Amino acid sequence: MSSSWKIETQAIQGGYDPKPGDPRVVTICQSTTFKYDSADYVAKLFDLEVPGFFYTRLGNPTTDAFEQRLAMMEGGVGALGTSAGQAATTLAIFNICKAGEHFVTASTLYGGTYNLFASTLPKMGIEVTFVDPEADAAEILAAFRPNTRALFAETIGNPGLNVLDFAKFSAIAQEKQVPLIIDSTFATPYLCRPFEHGANIVVHSATKYIDGLATSVGGVIVDGGNFNWDNGRYPELTEPDPSYHGLQYAKTFGPLAYIVKARVQLMRDLGAVPSPFNSFLFAQGLQTLPLRMQRHSDNALALATYLERHPAVSWVNYPGLPSHASYELARKYLPRGASGVLTFGIKGGAAAGKKFMEACNLIALVVHVGDARSCVLHPASTTHRQLSEEQQIASGVTPDLIRLSVGIEHIDDITADVEQALAASQR
Ligand code: PLP
């Protein structure tokens, strides 16, 4: 296995290196635990002195193959699979932020992440400041406090579809000596590798493009191994952990400190672990990710171009379109394509939008994105409905916004379905 492989090769061959007689395919290791003969050896496993598996909450061969494959594709040093994307985000923050501390985040977020940050984490004593990612650096810097522990943003905001200015965000994170944590769910490592642009930690909802066929909920945290935890500000990584008989993560594990701590301390205690079966499906999904992401992106660009010229459409939001405010950022950070999600407004507003959704045949009304099958959604009445209108607008959702997750079917069939549904929406 080689980290110099192109991403298409890493996706197919990475993370699993079968020896003679081993199964060719990553196997589903559906076992809670692992057998050993020597108590001393098991003690060494517990003490993290030797690598190996002892209990599936802490590690599992199938999940390990998925983690290693994705870490390789992202160009990170290690990864931790989780039971959902929400768990990945929660653990990524908890790993370095406790009650009485604070972090700064872009406001253009997936609705579930917005709720987690605006409602649940503050109840646990973690304070959060939301910033407009388009604001200038001075304004974002002003949100930092002495107890600020991280800067968080999405590569492509869901569902605003603004592309992150990595140069600005990573410079701010570096100046403040905090890690830049990126949710790269919509981009996937095929379209953007955030560590190459100054990010330190990446999280994904594996539920979306990584799975790719809408079979399983899951998440993953990837560690870039490129943050200096020893800067005097992260004692949880540099000082002895009393809950792990004095383990010092940075000293013992160097660049792997963050991801090892997330596993042996937080996964141990919180248990948001993926099932081996789901990890198998994610490892399978990664194999076709480059092919799918190219097709999703090409189809979405073609459909966005078509919609932009359609008389029943008032606006189209897709970062691959030259008319989009993020177009230059998309060209810089997403050179292969701008992923499969686009939003648009129908003339006739919310009522026409409802008619459009109900008239779609091939394109299904489902609460999902990133599926190989095209799907459609009205976020204000579904995924973002727990937010106030003010919060919805802050996260990029207007009442007339329709979101399309463009699949990998033939573009002519997708366009034909949109064409007839648009006609129906205007009757
Ligand atoms: N991040 C983004 C960008 C998402 O779109 C989602 C879900 O839609 C999540 C995180 C949460 O992931 P999950 O549903 O796997 O918990």
TrEMBL record:
It comes from the Bacteria. Keywords: Pyridoxal phosphate. Its cofactor is pyridoxal 5'-phosphate. InterPro entries: Cys/Met-Metab_PyrdxlP-dep_enz (IPR000277), OAc-hSer/O-AcSer_sulfhydrylase (IPR006235), PyrdxlP-dep_Trfase (IPR015424), PyrdxlP-dep_Trfase_major (IPR015421), PyrdxlP-dep_Trfase_small (IPR015422). Gene3D superfamilies: Aspartate Aminotransferase, domain 1, Type I PLP-dependent aspartate aminotransferase-like (Major domain). Belongs to the trans-sulfuration enzymes family. This is O-acetylhomoserine aminocarboxypropyltransferase. It comes from Geotalea uraniireducens. The gene is metY-2.
